[in-house]
Design brief:
Blueprint lengths: L3 H11 L16 H26 L16 H5 L7 E2 L5 H9 L6 H9 L32 H14 L12 E6 L6 H16 L5 E7 L2 E2 L2 E2 L4 H7 L5 E6 L3 H18 L3 E6 L18 H6 L5 H11 L5 H22 L8 H9 L3 H15 L11 E2 L1 H15 L3 E5 L15 H5 L4 E3 L4 H13 L3 E6 L9 H9 L1 H4 L8 E7 L17 H4 L5 E3 L4 H18 L2 E7 L18 E2 L14 E3 L5 E5 L2 H15 L4 E5 L2 E3 L3 H10 L3 E8 L4 H11 L6 E6 L17 H18 L5
Length: 732
């Protein structure tokens, strides 16, 4: 388990001599504090050595270590163990120090179990190496570089709001650490900008950001002075620098800044200068891009050595005591590593997927009951039986949800004062106030990050992304942070939220790709995420209620895709028929069906399978087909992820032929999964599909040349019917 930095530390400590006159500690750094910092740093260092040893034994699977970054233990010791934390992957010192603040915690076992993917890993249950622990208020995150920062902003924003019950103490602050290379990522830049934006406007935001700056990102050097200039120039965000090889000063700086954030409820950045030992990870050949002289020169900046020196200088430890502690921790970590290496690991697909697939029907029922009781007779709701458009139906469900669940918040670009680009959220701000209905800055990463922070804090966020094409700006927040949270925390942390997205095509007079996007492939590829889309007003009421219940009852991340072109439709077949309108009725207090498809008509000659705008077109086509003697019915899937497979297979099995009507693209569209599902289920009914073209959607009338239309649907339906009849000799 030896390493050059190990040998250097031992030799350097043996050479230490106590000063003739003992140095005094400042008032804000007690002897106990410095000793606890050293203990945490020792544990982090030997856990890094153990990680390399476990890998060599074939029992460990992760070697990105914290060696050289152990000064982050000072940050943990400046905080309360109930302050939520989101940690950089080199924050081993922080983790050990935080665990030391909570009786009964074992940072050594926790990290070793994570390294070896033991099922007893207290955070991920053996799914990944992450720093996280529910009992320590440490929220795990993936390593998609700085992706934890928008969520940290969201937690800070929630703490600033106060109000309904939150998972954190009233005076809590949130801390989030990241590396100097990560500081250049768009998520970091967006969070720093959002923090400055809030501070400039006087919005409370108790957020402490910690940049652990070792001067290099894998092999790419950070330009000298860049981090100082970048972080210190943020308007209204306090900046303080500390050197990791000055432990007493680092402890003082961390305490000063964390106390300031807690007192002032304003954001701040601690720039913690660190050093990186043993390369980026076990597989990193550091000599390929750094000279031996550079590598060995860094040994003098070892924070563990600096803390040992400080303990001697202040008369708190002798050299022999330091060496004894060092070897004692080494022995304990190695002993536990040998034991933990034999613990069981996940063995089946069901075990791996359990946090994504678990169902809690009782919780869903309770969520529905709560909303029904809480919104009963609320005067802000539409009158019973009042006709509503799809847009008005969504508004009504938002009103009933906000009336019943005070921790619900609706926010996004233009949703508050203006009431949304299409009027869907009109009136909500007046009814529920500016703390619960908010206009955000124009940054989708920050919007979803805010929702993630609010949801993990106990709120029920309903963020809006103004157009489907803009979802891609925040996709990693949904995929890498939102949907993975339950997976990487074994269901201990969840993100109950409903993301409203205006999307799909066919809106008239205003379009082009970014306002008429018809691709949902990126959303459907995210495990655990729920994607629903309504096709009329009644459908919108049902589906949005179900999404809210899924979010509240099962902690699901739901995306509610709203067809822009259908927002204000009133008629289906003829002007004035009113068949696209719904009728609002109070929440029934139960959900008779959940995540099921809906069928229109009973015809069995042909089944048209569709969703969204395609349902409207298919229903109109089915009426015309009936005039020519073809009895068709329409299956509205409603749920695009996961697909309602049992309903689909059952309906397809009852029809003589199936036509999948898919308004998305031929490649990567929903129809690919539908056809595959039918094949997998052994359905032998003839199946065809019609789709929009594989292209972005142009502006103006040219859009009609690439989008699926009713003429194409009817032609394909008639051709399929004739082909099927011919194949059966004209028999029904």
């Amino acid at each position: 388990m030896g390493h050059a930095i190990d040998e250097h530390w031992l030799a350097s400590v043996r050479a230490l001599t106590p000063p003739a006159t003992r140095r005094e500690l400042p008032e804000d750094v007690s002897p106990d504090l410095l000793l606890r910092c050293f203990e945490a740093q020792l544990q982090a260092r030997h856990l890094d050595f153990a990680g390399r040893w476990l890998q060599a034994q074939g029992a460990g699977y992760y070697t990105i270590g914290s060696a050289g970054h152990e000064s982050n233990a000072a940050v943990a010791l400046s905080l309360e163990p109930t302050d939520p934390a989101l940690l950089h992957y080199r924050s081993g010192g922080f983790y050990a120090a935080r665990a030391g603040q909570v009786p009964g915690s074992s940072p050594v076992d926790d990290v070793l179990r994570s390294l070896t993917t033991s099922v007893h890993d207290p955070i991920s249950g053996g799914r990944h190496k992450v720093f996280g622990n529910h009992a320590l208020s440490i929220i795990p995150q993936t390593s998609t570089i700085a992706s934890q920062l928008p969520r940290a902003f969201g937690i800070g924003f929630t703490l600033g709001l106060g109000g309904p019950a939150t998972h954190w103490p009233e005076d809590a602050i949130v801390v989030c650490s990241f590396g100097d290379a990560s500081a250049n990522h768009s998520t970091a830049a967006g969070t720093l900008n959002a923090a400055a934006w809030c501070a400039h406007r006087g919005v409370p935001l108790p957020l402490l950001l910690v940049c652990e700056d070792n001067g290099i990102g894998i092999s790419t050097r950070t330009p000298g002075g860049w981090i100082e200039e970048s972080l210190s120039s943020r308007p209204s965000v306090r900046y303080l620098r500390a050197d990791g090889d000055q432990p007493v000063e680092a402890l003082s700086a961390a305490r000063e800044l964390s106390d300031w954030v807690r007192r002032e409820r304003r954001p701040a950045v601690l720039h913690l200068k660190t050093v990186r030992f043993m390369g980026h990870a076990g597989s990193d050949a550091e000599m390929a891009y750094r000279t031996r002289t550079e590598i060995t020169a860094d040994h003098a900046r070892d924070p563990l050595l600096a803390t040992a020196r400080a303990l001697v200088e202040h008369g708190l430890c002798t050299v022999d005591e330091l060496l004894e502690d060092y070897e004692s921790v080494r022995g304990h970590v190695l002993e536990r590593a040998e034991s933990v290496a034999s613990e069981p690991r996940l063995r089946t697909s069901d075990e791996v997927r359990a946090p994504l697939t678990r169902q809690r029907p009782g919780h869903i029922d309770a969520a529905a009951t709560r909303i029904a009781h809480g919104s009963a007779d609320d005067p802000r709701l539409p009158a019973t039986g009042e006709p509503v458009t799809l847009a008005q139906a969504i508004n009504a469900v938002l009103v009933e949800t906000m009336a019943a669940v005070p921790e619900t918040a609706v926010f996004g670009e233009d949703v508050a004062v203006k009431g949304g680009g299409y009027g869907v959220t009109r009136g909500l701000r007046k009814k529920f106030g500016g703390k619960r209905v908010l206009d955000t800055l124009l940054d989708e990463q920050t919007i979803i990050g805010t929702a993630l922070g609010m949801s993990v804090s106990g709120w029920m966020p309903v963020p809006e992304i103004q157009y489907l094409a803009y979802v891609h700006n925040a996709l990693d927040q949904l995929r890498g942070e939102g949907a993975t949270q339950a997976f990487f925390s074994n269901g201990q942390f969840e993100n109950p939220m409903v993301v409203r997205v205006a999307g799909l095509a066919y809106q008239k007079g205003f379009g082009g790709h970014f306002h008429n996007d018809n691709s949902v492939a990126a959303l459907r590829d995210i495990p655990g995420l729920v994607l629903a889309t309504p096709s009329d007003a009644d459908d919108a009421i049902t589906l949005l209620r179900e999404c809210v219940a899924l979010a509240q009852g099962e902690g699901r991340v739901c995306v509610f895709l709203e067809p822009i072109a259908l927002y204000h439709e009133k008629d289906l077949h003829e002007p004035g028929d009113g068949l696209a309108l719904g009728r609002y009725a109070p929440h029934p207090g139960r959900l008779p069906t959940l995540m099921r498809a809906r069928r229109h008509g009973t015809g069995s000659d042909l089944l048209l399978v569709s969703f969204g705008n395609g349902v409207r077109m298919s229903r109109r086509v089915a009426t015309r087909l009936a005039e020519s003697g073809i009895e068709a019915s329409v299956l509205d899937l409603r749920w695009l992820t996961p697909l309602p497979l049992s309903d689909l297979v059952a309906a397809a099995g009852e029809a003589r032929a199936v036509l999948v009507v898919d308004e998305t693209r031929a490649s990567g569209g929903v129809s690919e999964s539908i056809l595959t599902a039918l094949v997998d289920a052994g359905v032998d009914t003839p199946v065809r599909r019609v789709t929009s073209d594989d292209t972005f959607i142009p502006l103006g009338p040219a859009a009609n040349t690439v989008l699926l239309d009713e003429e194409q649907i009817q032609h394909a339906a008639e051709q399929l019917f004739m082909t099927t009849r011919a194949a059966t000799g004209g028999q029904p």
